[in-house]
Amino acid sequence: MLVEVCANSPESARVAEQAGADRVELCSELALGGITPSAGLLEWVRRHVRIPVHVLIRPRSGDFLYSEAELDCMLADIRTCVAMGFAGIVSGCLQADRHIDQEATRRLREAAGTCHFTFHRAFDRCPDPVAALQALEQLGVNTILSSGQAADAVAGLPLLRRLHGLAQDCQVMPGGGINPGNAQVFKAAGFTAIHLSGVPKPTGPEPDAGLPMNSLSLLREGRPLHTDPAIVAAVIGSLNKGPK
Questions:
Q1: In terms of C-beta density within 10 A (0-12 exposed, 13-18 middle, 19 or more buried), how is residue 25 classed?
Q2: What is the pLDDT at residue 100?
Q3: Is 146 left (phi over 0), alpha (psi -120 to 50) or beta?
Q4: How far is it, in rounded angstroms, from Cα 82 to Cα 55?
Q5: Percent of the chain with pLDDT over 90
Q6: For residues 107 and 104, what is the distance between their CA atoms, to the nearest angstrom?
Q7: C-beta separation of 141 from 123 below 8 A
Q8: Where are the alpha helices (DSSP H) in 50-188?
Q9: Strand pairing of 23-26 and 193-196?
Q10: Residues in the chain with pLDDT < 50?
Q11: Which CATH architecture has domain 2-200+220-241?
């Protein structure tokens, strides 16, 4: 069974390889569900990690409905990763109704060329998972990463089994809450790959690191927050009115 480890740093990618993982999914900010890694992280991992690396292409947290400008950024990031020689791309887009955005995803898939293409856990927000599976197979997606639309892949196992049985040309890869205590469940169910971060859940109070830098009030699962031009213009206007 292939074991893919979601790595968010040089250290995590190196540890995944040393521990025997078959593949790395490289991203940043696990707490946000993962976003596109920086150019520096891509460069370091390309130089130092020998197992296949698939790169997450997600420009921000929040929903998976992207503007044309965001899609342009995603396509540019994919082209960079392809040029650098990475083995795969992990990405995808949804429409406002949470069905697969087939046109946008097609553009991402085409930009990935011969690289392996995984549609990430945006799949778990689709209202009709069977229709989503069929659409992604038509688009030439190689793998779907899913928790079975549940809080974790064990709870989502009934749907994962159903999708696995229906899939023709696309691998269904369980991910979400997989650990040493339940990994064997997925092998016994006939899956050929699993996805995990291998990050232990923190326990106890966090050590005092100084002034908080996280802004939890800004985190959104839906539409992201954007700069308000009225606020910026008002600040500039107030400065222009003040003393020189």
A1: buried
A2: 98
A3: beta
A4: 10
A5: 82
A6: 5
A7: no
A8: 68-84, 102-112, 129-138, 157-166, 183-188
A9: unpaired
A10: none
A11: Alpha-Beta Barrel (3.20)
Would you state the structure tokens that stand for residue 112, as one six-digit string?
Answer: 């990935």
Q: What is the pTM of this model?
A: 0.92
Residue type, 117: F
- CA-nearest of 71, 66, 91 to 223 is 66
Residue range 19-71, pLDDT digits in tens: 999 999 999 999 899 999 999 999 999 999 999 999 999 999 999 999 999 99
Residue closest to 42 by CA, chosen among 4, 15, 8: 8
CA distance 120 to 173: 10
The full set of domain ranges for the chain reads: 2-200+220-241
Residue 101: which residues within 8 A CB-CB, separation 6 or more?
64, 65, 93, 94, 95
Question: What pLDDT shows up at residue 244?
Answer: 63
Please count the residues of the chain. 244
- How would DSSP label each residue in 23-53? EEEE-B-GGGT-BPPPHHHHHHHHHH--S-E
